[in-house]
Amino acid sequence: MKKTIPLQKRGIPASRLVLGCMGFGGGWNRNPVTADDLKQAHAAVETALAAGITMFDHADIYAYGKAEQVFGQVLRERPGLREQMVLQSKCGIRFDEGTGRPARYDFSAEHILSSVDGILSRLGVESLDILLLHRPDPLMEPEEVADAFSKLKQAGKVKGFGVSNMSPAQIRFLQSHLDAPLLVNQLELNLAKLDWLEAGVLVNQQEGAEVSFPEGTIEFCWMEQIQIQAWSPLAKGVFTGREPENQPESVRLTAALVREMAERKGTAPEAIVLAWLMRHPAGIQPVLGTIRPERIQASAEALQVSLSREEWYSLYVSSRGRKMP
Ligand SMILES: NC(=O)c1ccc[n+]([C@@H]2O[C@H](COP(=O)([O-])OP(=O)(O)OC[C@H]3O[C@@H](n4cnc5c(N)ncnc54)[C@H](OP(=O)(O)O)[C@@H]3O)[C@@H](O)[C@H]2O)c1
């Protein structure tokens, strides 16, 4: 049975997989966007759409704004495309901007509002479907965020809001000042970084003291119908073909198991690693970081893969490198 994910339950036509756009625009440098960057962006968007991936994840900072800029160029050259997409971006991280001020987080209303204007202008669209606050800002004043959100909503610039890298306590605190539910929490979740599972499995165990993931985050988001999105879902390729330099034995063994399972199921290793995340009953939405057409296609095969409980556990146990407690 196909599971409906929280965003879909709220009537947002989100695809099961999201294409993350951090790699668009030629990388983290201040060079202008090139014709090759544009060609690569067209190919990635086209491959994603053909594979049924219609949701795209941006941030104002990606490639110093060039990721949104090149994506906007694609949209301008292909009118009608925007209507087929769910567009998400993020704000709240600032670099030093060459002014001698430190790189910092900024949830001030002034920054949120001006950041969204920048996002819309680079993407060349009238509105964003979802805006996320990128990383928790210790100086956040929730009333100010609420004010910025309602101005953006009233102006038709943003339809819905969410967060990234936040704990249940942080979400509850912010939510208590908002009049609409937060829709998304984007977190680093993958088969290499297992703390999101270990936090639940190691309750009442000494080993659990070393886990760095706020206990109950998954359950809280699931209960509140907050879409959990996984950033770095491919774990940067360590299980799917990237040379395992200086990786622990468990990574090598898990990569071999992923390969063997992919062969047995007649699919790509990427599909196994993503299907493993999607097998979790909370309905996790992986945000892919590749812009290579062949890897996007291989990833999209995850939509056809189902893993048994035993297969899911064999990958988990292999990656954790020891038996379940
Ligand atoms: N909210 C946050 O704080 C946050 C933080 C980071 C990222 N994100 C979002 O999450 C998305 C995904 O993040 P991510 O890029 O870290 O995720 P990822 O999908 O785990 O990793 C993709 C990266 O790994 C490389 N890779 C994958 N398989 C490979 C292989 N077999 N061999 C060599 N390289 C391989 C890709 O290179 P190729 O491009 O060559 O395939 C790409 O650079 C981003 O685009 C962004 O939208 C959010």
TrEMBL record:
CDD domains: AKR_BsYcsN_EcYdhF-like. GO terms for molecular function: oxidoreductase activity. This is Aldo/keto reductase. SUPFAM superfamilies: NAD(P)-linked oxidoreductase. It comes from Paenibacillus naphthalenovorans. InterPro entries: AKR (IPR020471), AKR_Detox_Biosynth (IPR050523), NAD(P)_OxRdtase_dom_sf (IPR036812), NADP_OxRdtase_dom (IPR023210). GO terms for cellular component: cytosol. It comes from the Bacteria.
